[in-house]
Amino acid sequence: MDSANITVKVFRFDPSVDKQPRYENYKVPFQTGMSAMDALDYIYQNLDSTLAYYDHAGCALGICGRCTGRINGNPGLLCQTIIAGDVTIEPLSTADVLKDLVVKARQ
Question: The CATH number of the domain where 18 resides is what?
Fold first, then answer.
């Protein structure tokens, strides 16, 4: 399945300007072993730099948990969850969304 495109459906919502959340579909070149974070990185770097999500130099280690979200409805770390085809990526909870996949930290 390498070099084929997959559809990545991403939750989008900016409470400061949007009345309702929406989903946006992106075509992303699939690579065996790619994570949900790899797909988001591709979208941000090549298709839509307005996408907001947690990403940092230490990501992919699965340590901090900042990139927790829902991948095809299942909770997981975006940096650790390997995808195998079309995927839907959402925040873990839509109640505290600051923008797109970024949520307010619970205290």
Answer: 3.10.20.30
